[in-house]
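Question thread 4412

I'm putting together a teaching handout and wanted feedback from people who do this every day. The idea is simple: show students a protein as raw sequence, then show them the structure tokens that encode its fold, then repeat with a second protein so they can compare. Below is the first pair exactly as I plan to print it.
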Amino acid sequence: MGNSTQLHQQQEIFQSSLLPQGTISKNEFTLIPARSHDPYIVALASEANHIAKGMWTRTTWEQRGSILRRFIEFTVRHKLDTTEENIPLFIVSLQLAKSSAIQYTRTLLTLLATARTPTQMFLMGLQKTAAQDPLKQARPMLRWELDMIIATLKTERDQVALRLKLCDFSPSAGCNPSQKQNFVPHEQDPNAIIVDWGALPKTFKSDPHRRARYVVIQGADAQRVRETIKGMTSDEKLTSLTTKDME
């Protein structure tokens, strides 16, 4: 029986015992095979393999695959099992420098260990892919979308309070202008109004990007605030909603 036939048989043994999920070629592994001829399953397996292989770069796969193939050839030649206990024999036979011997041993241990858990390899590939994806920010909410959310509240005061929070007038999540005295007429612009968000809590962390304590609002928002607070007393609360209610 030729060495090529022996190698093929040993690969099959290796596949069924240590690598039940894949086959070995010179530079590539099939980590998650399609156990069906259904084209849909084959396509899913192909995509799953692509993700799993993402745990390492193509160059890394080729380098580690080459080491594994040499190990298999060694076990075939000496009629040994392709198992972890024979890795030391293979490493010693190569007469490598100590640093290379360490690298080869770690590589083989890693391949034999991870090969038994294809789902773990798939997860590692997913994690690496996710880490490389750019962070995506949600688009700003449109005015009509804000109006729909605000309209769900029953009272005008609650709606005004929520609009002030959602329209990004607030300098921090913990601020809430609760009384009439927090709204000050603008001396230079009668159509505008100044919102005094009050002093920030001492425990609030400094943020160079947060808005100032005093914010000027204009247009329809200012007019709505003005009309809403007209009948309020100076110490009367605009709304009973808490900051948590508005989140």
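The second pair follows. I'd like the answer to focus on this one:
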Amino acid sequence: MFEIEDTSGRNSHSKFEDQMKLLTDQLECERETNSKLRNDIAALLLLQESLVKSGSTIEIDEADQTSQKPSNDGGAGEEAKPMDVN
């Protein structure tokens, strides 16, 4: 009976490790996406600042705005994932 419990414990531990690996990989992917988004935001803010200084303006048609609605996946083009709370 002890062997069965030991094997079951190892299987549970192995499943737990597999789940942790999967979650770690998913978290790393989300961190990369967040980093890319932060870089894009910073670039857009710099562009906005330089346009304001030069007096240029960009007008966006209402049709363009509606075509740029964020998707349910956060606009990352990937499956929706839980948000990183850290």
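Top answer:
Good format. For the second protein you could add a caption like this: The CA atoms of residues 62 and 68 lie 10 Å apart. The mean pLDDT is 77.
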